[in-house]
Design goal:
It is built from twelve helices and twelve strands. The chain is of the alpha+beta class and 373 residues long. The strands form three sheets. A six-stranded mixed sheet has the order 1-6-7-4-3-2, covered by helices on one side. Strands 5-11-10-8 form a four-stranded mixed sheet. Strand 6 and strand 7 form a beta hairpin. Helix 6 packs antiparallel against helix 7 and helix 8 packs across helix 10. It is globular. The N and C termini lie far apart (53 Å).
Length: 373
């Protein structure tokens, strides 16, 4: 497939959208001229996501390699009803393009005076997919595929692989995106709308918790209000081990549909929740997994410090701790609970998170200390 981005079709409606499946995708791609009439192609659905149909298109005879075709779903694949406009696919394309530019430039901003020290994560390169084409009539786009031998970091963590260099590289990656977009007026204007972030994160996480735990409602609504007030940088919104694809020496970041310009504390709290869940799940390696949190935060802060002040980083730590506690509770009692915790471990997380939200911590170190007990 040719590298330059191609936009096909015109903006359409849900009723006229072709549903892409492993059975319909090849014909669709041929009709669009994106596969040759006689070109061999094998299409299979990728697992793991709940909000999109994601198809891997394997072209065994093509020198251009495989690619991924992605189409937004109006109803998410979870037990409870969870709807979101499929227009979010275009937000994903825009955020992906911005992230690609930030990583290509090293996240350099007008505030940066020196290059970051990446020695803790120097054995890993970080990247995002390249957009190949988009189709506004069918709410889909295609992007380059990660190497075939990759695994998600979630898979590796659940299998007992706790690699501190990957954690450090992830800290540098997220820190680069945050620092490179810090108080950037152009990116702020492009990503001002937070509708999809609200529909896919704030509502099913925090507002849902306020219903399940009415004693925490004031704290959670205050957290939502503070999140809306705080606009500092690009926020990925789904920065988690399942969206970090690991291949030898390389990390791919994917899934950008809830990206926006807002509070980086959400990204941090969301990501640290996933590491904490894995640490408790893999009980005999808990301390090793909690050490991943320290390595991640070390490189993240190192990177962010090039774009902002110590006072802002301290206040970010406070907000991160509250988001971390709320996200931990959301992954037990929100609309999309994790599927690998026992009932006992769910109760453990619920107890810790509720306590933290009733008496909000002042910094993330208070939560790591709590988890180490």
């Amino acid at each position: 497939m040719a590298r330059p981005r191609l936009c096909v079709g015109v903006k359409g409606t849900l009723s006229g959208m072709l549903e892409l499946t492993p059975h319909t995708a090849a014909n669709y791609l041929r009709e669009q001229g994106l596969l040759g009439a006689q070109e061999a192609a094998e299409v299979r659905e990728l697992s793991g996501g709940v909000s999109n149909t994601v198809l891997l298109v394997h072209r065994p005879d093509s020198p251009n390699g495989d690619f991924v075709l992605k189409q937004a779903l109006p109803r998410l694949k979870v037990q409870q009803e969870w709807l979101c406009s499929i227009e979010r696919i275009w937000r994903e394309v825009e955020v992906l393009e911005i992230c690609g530019s930030l990583l290509a430039s090293g996240g350099r901003s007008h505030l940066e005076t020196q290059p970051p020290d990446t020695s803790l994560s120097s054995n890993w390169t970080t990247t995002v997919p390249q957009i190949l084409f988009s189709d506004r009539a069918n709410f889909c786009y295609a992007m380059s595929a990660a190497p075939a031998a990759h695994k998600t970091w979630k898979e590796q963590l659940l299998a007992g692989e706790a690699n501190p260099q990957i954690a450090a590289a992830c800290g540098t990656l997220l820190g680069t995106l945050h620092a490179g977009s810090w108080r950037d007026a152009d990116i702020a204007a492009r990503l001002e709308d937070r509708t999809f972030f609200d529909s896919l994160r704030l509502d099913p996480y925090y507002r849902r918790l306020a219903v399940v735990h009415p004693d925490l409602a004031d704290t959670l609504h205050n957290l939502i209000d503070e999140t809306y007030r705080t606009r500092l940088c690009l926020v990925h919104g789904d920065f988690s081990p399942k969206n970090l694809l690991i291949s030898p020496g390389q990390i791919w970041l994917i899934d950008f549909e809830v990206g926006h310009f807002g509070d980086p504390a959400f990204d941090l709290g969301f990501f640290l929740t996933h590491l904490a869940l894995k640490a408790i799940h893999v009980a005999d390696r808990r301390m090793d997994y909690l050490d991943l949190i320290e390595r991640f935060l070390q490189t993240y802060r190192q990177r962010l410090s090039l774009a902002t002040s110590d006072d802002e980083i301290a206040d970010l730590s406070r907000r991160t701790a509250i988001h971390w506690a709320a996200c931990m509770l959301a992954r037990v009692d929100g609309k999309s609970p994790v599927d690998y915790l026992s009932v006992e471990l769910q109760s453990f997380f619920r107890r810790i998170a509720c306590k933290l939200l009733l008496q909000p911590p002042r910094e993330v170190a208070e939560i790591t200390t709590c988890l180490r007990r």
